[in-house]
Amino acid sequence: MENKWWQSEIVYQIYPRSFQDSNGDGIGDVRGIISRLDYLAELGITMIWISPIFKSPMADNGYDISDYFDLAPEFGTMADFEELLAETKKRGIKILLDLVVNHSSDEHPWFQEALKNPQSKYRDYYIFKEANERPNNWRSIFGGSVWEKLPDEEVYYYHTFHKKQPDLNWENPELREEIYSMINQWLELGIAGFRVDAITFIKKDLSFKSIEPDGVDGLAKCTKTSRNQPGIEVFLKELQERCFKPYDSVTVAEAPGVGYDELDDFIGPDGFFSMIFDFKAADLDVASGTEWFKPVAWTPEDLFNRLKTSQLAIQESGWGAPFIENHDQNRAPSKYLKDNQTNPVALKALALLYFYLYGTPFIYQGQEIGMVNFERESLDDFDDISSIDQYHRGMAEGLTAEEALAVINYRSRDNSRTPMQWEDSPSVGFTTGQPWLAVTEQSSVRNVAAQMADPDSLWRFYQNLIAVKKETPVLTHGQIAFPERTEEDVFLYRRYDEDQAYLVIVNLSGQAQTVVYPRPGELVVTNQGVTITTNDIKLAPFGAALIKEEC
Ligand code: GLC
Ligand code: CA
């Protein structure tokens, strides 16, 4: 694959509501982000992805947009955004915005007009069906039917996600034109591109037929009939040609449901997107990303195999977007390290494990200081709509209330949405007011100030990983290979080109391991747990290293 400008970016995801509050209302905002740009520059990242900042009633914290052209007042004004653009530019940081166009908010003027006036053209901007009962048995991602009845009519509208997120009707060419022109206006402003939300849901099985139920509610997951359906390629190609291509923008798509055999279309040299997130590794602990109440046991071997299969498929077609956290996932140390979630050596091992994989690496806010899951005592302490649904759904499927609470404590999206821990104080330096969501913990270790002051911290480790990646192009542009492994818990991968090779080796267990390895080399990065001898590599529990191999 020919080199592209976005391949060498290092992306940091900001969940604006929880990153930094600037005015004491307890809600993070754009001016808060501006005040932390020096921090981000010091970490070394080159691009930020900001979760939605647009006007929204916040049923899904901004993933329900009621005006694509303006900011939510709690996040700031257009003038604040323009200042953010200018300030990021000064520091060599690019901006990715979140593009949410599978659905809008039900408070968007288009939807409001469609409700008020069934004759208006906006009725066809959404999916309405006249019926005496719900048109089929598809289940929405946030629970219940995908169909919501209008109060005074025998009419239902379709929502893949929450009922306050009606799906836009991509079959309507005029609606598509409105979307393209909106996208291009943001690109004109000078953003680098978009993270593209839930984009594989834009095409539905237009027969809208009921299917075999898969739960006690008599419903069936809508992913079977409305995700990555035949015909979606027409919309995605048009989107690419009309918007992303002319601006040479970067796009990273949330595209669940795309098989490895379809990657050429999605991320190939002329693919719809620059890269897509693969959730196979992130969701290895649950039956599916949408069914947390069905936990799945896994081993490090499973994790390794998922990463390997994914990476080889991605390399074959295009470019990857390695990540271990985002605003929909629980905290990675709690998921992957379990009892070792606060073990500093293990945290660094986890960072090394994914950071030099093939693709553009993403870091989620708080990941760089090892933030962990929280523990809440009652359902009332949760904000996330998905957690509330999974709690009730879990109980309907046979869990006790206690078990259902444990499931959402573990998997809740709120885990990654708690305030960013800047310092060791009750409101963790996030706000001078009352934070909108309770902080995870007040910790003397897991906060930015403490870790920046400690040369051996996880934060410093991430800073170094980034610096090394910038200095070592083969870690970006080189091929990836997975050498034969001899120890179940030890991960290995090599990045290489014609002249050089680097080995990443990670012991993801609490036992010491020895790996016979006849091509020793020099340690470039390590968490202090690795010794190289003439023909083997000794790894302490959670020992990990980047080794420059002798060629
Ligand atoms: C994506 C977002 C998630 C949101 C959903 C609906 O999965 O990442 O946060 O709830 O889309 O927009
Ligand atoms: Ca604020």
From TrEMBL:
Short name of one Pfam family: Alpha-amylase
Domain Glycosyl hydrolase family 13 catalytic, residue spans: 13-417
Key words, A-Z: Carbohydrate metabolism, Glycosidase, Hydrolase
Reaction catalysis annotation: Endohydrolysis of (1->4)-alpha-D-glucosidic linkages in polysaccharides containing three or more (1->4)-alpha-linked D-glucose units
EC class (word): hydrolase
EC number: 3.2.1.1
Keyword Hydrolase: yes
Highest taxon of the lineage: Bacteria
Similarity comment: family membership: Belongs to the glycosyl hydrolase 13 family.
Protein's name according to its UniProt entry: Alpha-amylase
Native source organism of the sequence: Streptococcus caprae
Phylogenetic classification of the source organism: Bacteria, Bacillati, Bacillota, Bacilli, Lactobacillales
